[in-house]
Amino acid sequence: MNLYITNSISKNNLMQFNDYTHLEISTCKNIIDEINNTYDDSECKKIVIENAFEYIQVDKIDLFLRTVIKKMRKGSSITLIGIDSYAVCKDYISKKISIEDFNLLIHGKPGTVRTASISLHGLVSYLRNEFGLRVIHQCLSGYNYNIEAIRE
After folding, report:
1. Domain 2-82+114-150 belongs in CATH node 3.40.50.150
2. Dihedral through CA 126, CA 17, CA 146, CA 26, nearest 10?
3. Are 67 and 35 within 8 A, CB to CB?
4. pLDDT tens track for 55-88
5. CB within 8 A of 89, min separation 6: which ones?
6. Stated pTM of the model
7. Strands across the sheet containing 21-24
8. How far does Cα 77 stand from its chain's mean position?
9. pLDDT-based confidence at 114, cuts 50/70/90?
10. Helix (H, G, I), strand (E, B) or coil at 108
């Protein structure tokens, strides 16, 4: 089984990840309970988490990642996609973006509140050191990070 987790699903996501089970954070009362109650440990071959960490309470991110990684089979992959807070802050301090753009990127559009910020390098280090995952791809494109790791 493949699992796609995001804050909210768009038509583009549905087409791109049509062979994945979709889990939308914005519609779950408790995303961690939802994952634990719905999916067995070691059930997933591929997991994609896109623009989701920002909408999880900071003190729950570790538990969220532990829960998701338990669902990975050995040899399976996880892809993490999101906004790199370090890159956004760097460009704001260098006056390459306005305060309005900074707020939009870090805090989200009005009506949505991002509760956490993450950086590419911090997340890569955490995946390696805390979970022993092998990171096979990491890149930063503009403000978006893309990380792929394998559970061995």
Report:
1. yes
2. -60
3. yes
4. 888 899 999 999 999 999 999 999 999 999 999 9
5. 102, 106
6. 0.90
7. 21-24, 2-6, 44-50, 72-83, 144-150, 134-141
8. 13
9. confident
10. coil
